[in-house]
Amino acid sequence: MTQFTDFGLAQPVLKALEEAGYHTPTPIQAQAIRPAMEGRDLCGIAQTGTGKTAAFALPILHRLSLENRRAPRRGCRVLVLSPTRELANQIAESFSDYGRHLPLTNTVVFGGVTIGRQERALAPGVDILVATPGRLIDLIERRSLTLEGVEILVLDEADQMLDLGFIHALKRIVKMLPAKRQSLFFSATMPKNIAGLADQYLRDPVQVAVTPVATTAERVEQEVIFAHTGAKQALLAHILRDPKIERVLVFTRTKHGADRVVRGLDKVGIAASAIHGNKSQPQRERALAAFKDGACRVLVATDIAARGIDVEAVSHVVNFDLPNVPESYVHRIGRTARAGADGLAISFCNDEERAYLRDIERITRQKIPVAPFPEGFQPPSRQEAAEIAQAEERRPDTRGQQRPGGGRPGQRPGQRQGRPGGGARPAEAGRGSGRPQQQGRPQGAQEARPARPQGENRPSPARTEARPDNRPRRPDARPRNAGGAGASEGRAIGWLDRAPRS
């Protein structure tokens, strides 16, 4: 096969491909499209950036266009499962692009955003649903979605979907699917234990592996630089000062590590954004959008961004931390050298990570060349790096300090402190006990009270006998639970219910 027209795809699909400038299929597309069009189960393995999304999207659109069937209410005809929100968004956009001339509907659902809008989109039924497993189960449990009408199931990044993090959710989902269906699994890596598990969900599948499992893209130049942990931050900053680096993805093993790298780059005047699981969905979308449009040339990410994020013109990938799962290395460096472009993957390796490096070289069947420090770079000694780290730890954190004027920690000047009197909302006042809410002291009263001389006890005309703990009772003291449970609840709500400002 040399042209998309040779497959016999529906004319509206071919028209969309023509408008997008696609004429010649990639190897994975050439081998996967025809059996998928015939309704066969399929397991496709190919390097990242080789067009796996089109390899399943095009035959699916073709099959749906041949059958003039409506999607069931609160249901879908095609279910595509993705491990990450970003990848789910990308897949949905691909279906929209390739099916722009077809009267088909598709939507994407994932966590981190309000579920109500997603429920309304699913109410009339959709032809193609792209979802992350967690949010999909949420919608099913709320009876906003049924899977009884699914005709085709797709697992993208199937190795991760079948791993421990998702396998329990996947087993629940598969039980709700019709037994008679087509299943399409695609991934860049497929370890043997995961491949055995995949066979449980596929019936007489067509095996398509255009490259050996877990091989890296040929156009990615790779190198590793040995550096102790304390030198990595300075080494990254030195590399990023090179104006030839147009757009770079930096990978860390942990979420806190990604934030720490961003803070370190900010101190030396290099703008960067972080994307990981602790970020809200709007924050992740803004960071990715700024990276795509060139507003931010450095994106620091955990492995969440290594799975299928298709950003054009990523010139460099830097593994600040080597991954402890060797297959993740293949996905990481596959973010560069996409669509025939060239790219460079630089890995930092400290003494503790040498075992990870050996695992990566074993699974990729190649030796990664060792590179020296860049010209002009003087790495800090281990002692200097340790002193810098200790200074950072000793630096006072002013985020939790009291601001002048009695504001709460982190409160902006002039921002209202709580509610007047420190009470609850009107609807919550007196909740639980039915007693009226007692109003607290006016704001700032505590600061205005003169300090009592140390050791002085105020006499109590109402009650002078000593309490069991030998402390006299103040005559103006109110009962501890004055105002009932609602009072304490009200004050707690006043502190917690405000959404944090991002």
UniProtKB/TrEMBL annotation:
Motif Q motif per UniProt: ranges: 2-30
PROSITE patterns named in the record: HELICASE_ATP_BIND_1, HELICASE_CTER, Q_MOTIF
Composition-biased stretches (Basic and acidic residues): 391-400, 464-479
Transmembrane segments: none
Domain Helicase C-terminal as annotated: residue spans: 219-381
GO MF terms, alphabetically ordered: helicase activity
Biased composition (Low complexity): 425-446
Residue span of region Disordered: 370-502
Name of one Pfam family that matches: DEAD
InterPro entries the record matches: DEAD/DEAH_box_helicase_dom, DEAD/DEAH_RhlB, DEAD_box_RNA_helicase, Helicase_ATP-bd, Helicase_C-like, P-loop_NTPase, RNA_helicase_DEAD_Q_motif
Keyword ATP-binding among UniProt keywords: yes
Keywords, alphabetical: ATP-binding, Helicase, Hydrolase, Nucleotide-binding
Ranges for domain Helicase ATP-binding: 33-208
Domain DEAD-box RNA helicase Q span(s) in chain numbering: 2-30
Family: Belongs to the DEAD box helicase family.
PANTHER family: ATP-DEPENDENT RNA HELICASE RHLE (PTHR47959:SF13), ATP-DEPENDENT RNA HELICASE RHLE-RELATED (PTHR47959)
Name of the molecule in the record: ATP-dependent RNA helicase RhlE
Source taxonomy: Bacteria, Pseudomonadati, Pseudomonadota, Alphaproteobacteria, Hyphomicrobiales
